[in-house]
Amino acid sequence: MNITMIVQFLVLLGEAKTQEQVDAQLEGLVSSYGFDFYSVLIQPLPQLKLQRSVLAAQWPENWTELYAQRKYSLIDPTLRWLRAAQRPFRWKEALLTLKADPHRQRMKRMMQEAGRHGLHDGYVFPIHGRNGLVGSFAIGGQPVDLSPAELNLFDAAAKAVFWKLLELRHQADIFENIPLSDLQLTRREMEVTLLLANGLTSNEIAKELDISSHTVDWYINGLHEKFGANNRQHLIALAFRLALIA
């Protein structure tokens, strides 16, 4: 583990004045750990009317176009797991975790296609702001086993580079001043809401959480009342609008 490399990266990142300098430093850090590709993304933020967008990226040739053409963003297991993740995770772990997802077979085909483009495995680092998920940092290529300490180092680098890029774009203040919602959800209510947003039915949610479908419906009815929602679609829309899920 090259701790010196990542410490040097954080020092140079603080001194960077341009996007080009940040890109060069980031590419050097990623390659020094054996990865070929990376991305730094802004996650969708309905309350700011922002769509998912790229702050910095280096992906295989033609992969981005193919990803868009086949609408992989709808079933990408790393994106689906990212919505609920609170800490870094490995790509293959996301697919294993979503074993009950109705789109699992298509997810597997997508990951196989990614492998043919050199994206065999990697890691995703969620980046949270005052009111939930605001961005992500991903690294990938050939399989690389990072130690817990290395994951922590990359997690620190992910947050630092995300906010640095926002500062260079004069957008950091916008993200830091997202209004907080007074509505609070319990852990189980959050899990149910996230799974609803992923398109799961009551029976599928029950299997995922190892509870009865009757209990799932009880939670959903309670969420309808808490949000003042008319139906499940309205509930999900309100949850996104209030930045309770991302």
Automatic annotation (TrEMBL):
<dbReference type="InterPro" id="IPR016032">
    <property type="entry name" value="Sig_transdc_resp-reg_C-effctor"/>
</dbReference>
<keyword id="KW-0238">DNA-binding</keyword>
<feature type="domain" description="HTH luxR-type">
    <location>
        <begin position="178"/>
        <end position="243"/>
    </location>
</feature>
<dbReference type="InterPro" id="IPR000792">
    <property type="entry name" value="Tscrpt_reg_LuxR_C"/>
</dbReference>
<keyword id="KW-0805">Transcription regulation</keyword>
<dbReference type="Pfam" id="PF03472">
    <property type="entry name" value="Autoind_bind"/>
</dbReference>
<protein>
    <submittedName>
        <fullName>LuxR family transcriptional regulator</fullName>
    </submittedName>
</protein>
<keyword id="KW-0804">Transcription</keyword>
<dbReference type="Pfam" id="PF00196">
    <property type="entry name" value="GerE"/>
</dbReference>
<dbReference type="GO" id="GO:0003677">
    <property type="term" value="F:DNA binding"/>
</dbReference>
<dbReference type="InterPro" id="IPR036693">
    <property type="entry name" value="TF_LuxR_autoind-bd_dom_sf"/>
</dbReference>
<dbReference type="GO" id="GO:0006355">
    <property type="term" value="P:regulation of DNA-templated transcription"/>
</dbReference>
<dbReference type="InterPro" id="IPR036388">
    <property type="entry name" value="WH-like_DNA-bd_sf"/>
</dbReference>
<dbReference type="InterPro" id="IPR005143">
    <property type="entry name" value="TF_LuxR_autoind-bd_dom"/>
</dbReference>
